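User: Show me an example of a complex going from sequences to structure tokens.

Assistant: Sure. Here are the input components:
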Amino acid sequence: MQLLFVEQLLNGVQLGVILFLMAAGLTLTFGIMNLVNLAHGSLFMLGAYLGVTFALVTGSFVAGFVAAGLATFVIGLVLERLVIRHLYARSHLDQVMCTVGLVYVLNEATRMVFGPEPLHAPIPAFLAGSVELIPGAPYPAYRLAMIGAGLAIAGLLYVLIGRTRMGMLIRAGASNRVMTSVLGVNIGAIYAVVFGIGAALAGFAGYIAAPILTVYPGMGDNVLILALVVLVVGGMGSVKGAFVAALLVGVIDTIGRAYLKDLMALVLSPVAANTVAPALASMLIYILMAVILFFRPQGLIPAAGLRRPEAPPEASDHGPSGPGVLARWRVPAIGLLCGAFLLLPLVAGFADQPFWVDMGLRVIIFAIAALSLDLILGQTGLVSFGHALYLGIGAYVVGILADAGVESGFVQWPLAMGLSALLAAALSVVALRTSGTFFIMITLAFAQMMFYGASSLYDYGGDDGMHLAVRSTFGGLVDLYDSRQFYYLALALLVVLAGLNMRLARARFGTVLKGIRINERRMEAAGFPTFRYKLAACVLSAAVCGLAGAMLANAAEFVGPQYMDWTRSAELMIMVVAGGLATPFGAIIGALAYLGIEKYLSDLTIHWRLGFGALLILLVFLGRGGLSALFAPGPAGQPAPVLKGSFRWARPFFRPRA
Amino acid sequence: MGKTLLQTAGVTRRFGGLNAVDAVDFDLAAGELVAVIGPNGAGKTTFVNLLSGALRPDAGAVLFEGRDISRLPMDARARLGIARSFQIASIFPELSVIENVALAAQAHAGHSFHFWREVADEAPLRRKAQAQLAGLGLSECAERPASQLSHGEKRLLEIAMALVVEPRVLLLDEPMAGLGIAEARRMIDFIAGLKGRFSILLVEHDMEAVFSLADRVFVLASGARVADGPPEAVRTDPRVQLAYLGGEGEDL
């Protein structure tokens, strides 16, 4: 038992070392360039692929090691030059969108080159045996070597930053970038090198982890999310904090998975322990993160001497922009959109393409989800990267209730909304203690926590999810098995929600959210307790997204953790940004455009994500304001259409927004 | 002068090893205008931040009408009646001028958990905002986006946002900074008109403004109080001159 514990402890340290190598690059780029780089996981993957390939070709494990570091260093420099460099001055939202685009491109390119099958990475012969650290407890030599190599690289990094001239410039750049460049240091070159070093560290990590992980496209994404947890727990921008947090996270995660079941069996019945323990074990580090952040919102060891980087302004801080190039087509465009949505089932009937109705239903459901995200992302300026979480909660409520024999939608759907709201209240109390980048990462980590939690619901299909046995019933009023009735129900809900959204934006509540987005400090100085309003916005938004999740479960007749995957959260974010922030019109055309392009590209080629990622990067650099900006009316102050007294309630829908 | 409204007792704030504000005792009576002056880096803005609640003190206390408010956040202090302007004009550039002021008024007119009724239809808020803008001579640009205002007008707008809630104490952090001579004149006249109606703390580098407006001048250097008294006495105080001339190796 004790020997086993030592082995588990070493496994934890070994995971911690890998996480540190990942987190070090992230924390350097954040601390110095104020950059959120979600493509870091792809560099991990590239290190594994390129290093292993080189090792197989040359037959030398060490040659592969060198190649992995060198190749990712060069790839890092190239990425920095082509894309990353242009993101430093952009908002965190732009950085997230663009680096997600890079993830799509790099992962898909890898799939094209190396194929979808996992690559086998052999353990080198000289490390194949095991070592008896303690008599009677053999430990694999390779894993021990991983710990050694990781610690050696960490030591080198420490010397590089703390002892060399290069490191001095890096530290100077981190504490005051303007002053450093005034002193004649080429700050651009330092940024490039720092990004390259971060990339190389990720590449090393990927290569040395390859023999014990599966090497496949997308392998870096899960490691990335763990590394983000490390970053947040340790304190962003702090290398020392990343080291401590990485070991902490690695050990707690490993030990939790190994022993939580036995521990819980002491207090719970064996059956209960067997059910709860795996879910809890996989959620443990996220719970740890939440607890630490609740008490220390800056992380365990905040970067010393580093002034809190001023977050670049989210969205725009300019006055209202002029009319879009298609402004005169605004009314016809909205009319066309409404007409198309209304008539779609009829047209599909004539054309004998019932599939179109399903497609339309999907667009509507995602439009509702995007609309709900827009309340916090667009209107309040809170960059939430875990919104798909509530899509999943809504879906699971429907699935689990249906499984338990409760089939009424009148029970399921409100419960889906209520539970989403409740969970959002609990999570947001922690998440809203932070702001800016921290908020992005915490929402992402919470969603991932629930993703793993749902994956451990073995009674409900675990990883694979489950088939929804029966669609929600509405006491004979609406039959969801009739695709037209389902479609029109969803459309009606969308119209009502979009209408409410527009009213809300012009009421006191929406005005406060807008004020918070533009200048939260000023709102506090004016006397608004902003926390309460942000919390309310998060809860409201989650409830609506939970409703979308309930509908999605019914439409797909499937419930699974896939709904909460972080790529799903990214999709919702892309819809909102592509359509245009802070307008329901934007959320709707964003959902339409996203699903339309996805359908079109995926019919065209199986490698559609490559093109899609490229589109995303272009969107960040060229598509300011999203699609709806093309149709934006002129600045506020235009005469509003005259409406008679009894129609005053409808005025917001016919007047351009300020 | 009336009774003491806002007071600090040994209030201290450290940044790393630096005592930005070091055990300062200060008081502001009802209806009084106190100017806080001092060389750059003296801790004036930190002091205002401690009073407004943007920062919490590391030691000492901030009292409002004798009540310890050191732990209250900024928004709660604002609702008690402590309004402030910022050193860098802080407004909502995307909103129209009148919306800026109405939004400030909204903070003091009950909660904002209204989801249906349009703000633009809330007559009391608009009336208050209009009256405030008229008083500042900004009525003509009420419907323009705030981003289109001149620098001086933005400063005035920010003060309108502070005044619209009828505060008890007004903390003005360098309201003249960056203004031209004519605009500064206009601002001095305006602040002179506020004297007696509000208790005002004015942080300012413009000595002409300080000595023409202040009932009392409070001098900070290196975070500590150097002098506190009537303008004429402070003007001739050798300790003040020493502080400004950098007798202690302070930067000017």
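The lines above are the inputs; the final block is the predicted structure for all two components together. Residues 103 and 125 of chain B are 8 Å apart (CA to CA).
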